Amino acid sequence: MRARMFSLLLFVLGIYTPVKSAADSNIFVCYFTQTRYFPPSAVPATTCTHLIYAFGLISGGTIKFRGQTDVNAINTLVGLKKQNPELKVLLSLQQGFPTIVTDSQTTMEKFSVNAISVLRNAGLDGIDFDWEFPLKKDRDNYSRFLKIFRTFVNKEAIGKTPLLVTMALANNVYALKTGYDVTSINQNVDFYTVMAYDLHVFNAKVDNVTGFNSPLYPVTGEIKYLSVSGLMSYCLSLGFKPSKMLLGVPSYGRSYKLNDANRHGIHAPAVSKGDPSPYRHLKGIYAYPDVCVAIQHGATIVSDQTSHGKYIYKGTAWVAYDDDITVAEKARWAVSQGLRGVGLWAVELDDLDGICTKDKTKLSLMTAIKNALNI
Ligand SMILES: *[C@@H]1O[C@H](CO)[C@@H](O)[C@H](O)[C@H]1NC(C)=O
Ligand SMILES: *[C@@H]1O[C@H](CO)[C@@H](O)[C@H](O)[C@H]1NC(C)=O
Q1: Probe ligand 1: pick from 99, 102, 137, max atoms within 8 Å of CB?
Q2: What does the alpha-carbon distance between residue 365 and residue 369 come to, in Å, rounded to a whole number?
Q3: Taking CA atoms, which of 124, 134, 327, 365 is between 20 and 30 Å from 103?
Q4: What is the C-alpha to C-alpha distance for residues 58 and 93, in angstroms, rounded to an integer?
């Protein structure tokens, strides 16, 4: 009580700001995959609270690494914990779930034991399940698997910190509604990132007009579930817990090739994914530095006041993207909704070389999110 009075006094004097306890502090998950242009040694140790390495393999009833470069990269990330003892490093799995989840209880138990031992031996702090996406028929078996995995994680953790079990959740209403047993996930998973991006990706047959990758608010003429806020409220309505829910934010844009350079608005006809980006040379995708280079080369910027989405265009090139302003706005929005934080896809798509800012500040998207989350 006296301590509380004392902090109250300091608070009134403006010296002390109450901080959330570790149990409910904000989380900033950063996914990382290896590319030529972003070595694991360049991943910052103190920007994210959790790093998730993507991806390990499910193979032969256990977790395997794709090769020595993965093992080395994971060692490097785990080594960052020397600089930041609070940092957690996890491994994500994406392929191969059916081989475990549609098999017997014995197979699930063996996998759990093997996987836990692989994670511990690598010095990792947990596992991230990124099955894209479980179908309705998989739902009950997946739920059973999660329960078994959690039991083994808890059993193994006697006398030490339990491994974390996290998940990436689908970006569409149908998959969210049919593929996941929300009660089981809330019981057995520590936190989950809703992949609130790729809401529009060029597809010749079904999505052949320009659209936003990850707009915060609904876009005029579209259903609200094709927006970040609409998708997140849908997840809450299904019973996912805000205290375990992270907002997935992209550090990349989606590019299109316009049918007609003079029709460059939202929902303009497109003929294909965009040509290779100007800096990282990616087809259909602009990493954040690609967006900055395109703007430096004279692309026109449009901010949509309704959805808070942004796009650039030049000639027949058209790109919907996020920048330091939009990712910070989303992070603040997530906190205002009582969500636990942000999950970024991905570290290597941020601006490693500092070409987006006048003062050459590096990784400006990650920095903007960290600041907005007050980490
Ligand atoms: C669920 O798992 C059982 C084994 O426990 C398996 O026989 C069944 O085929 C699985 N269901 C689906 C839809 O894969
Ligand atoms: C464009 O997409 C629509 C559906 O949104 C589809 O009906 C139409 O056939 C597509 N156009 C082409 C040329 O494939």
Answers
A1: 102
A2: 6
A3: 124
A4: 7
Residue numbers in the chain where pLDDT is lower than 70: 1-23
Give me 374's structure tokens: 């007050």
Ligand 1 binding residues, C-beta < 6 A: 102, 104, 137, 141
- For residues 183 and 309, membership in a common domain is answered with no
Mutate to test the pocket of ligand 1, among 135, 136, 141, 146 (most ligand atoms within 8 A of CB): 141
Residue 78: what pLDDT? 98
- Is 5 domain-assigned? no
What angle is formed at CA 273 by the lines to CA 271 and CA 279, rounded to 5 degrees? 135
Residue 295 to residue 289: CA distance in whole angstroms: 10
Q: In angstroms, what is the span from residue 287 Cα to ligand 2's centroid?
A: 27
10 located within any domain: no
- Residue ranges around ligand 2 (CB below 6 Å): 204-206, 208
Indicate whether 269 and 226 sit together in one domain.
Answer: no
CA–centroid distance, residue 204 to ligand 2 (Å): 7
Examine residue 353 and state whether it is found in any structural domain, yes or no: yes
Percent of the chain at pLDDT > 70 equals 94
Range of the domain at 48: 23-251+324-373
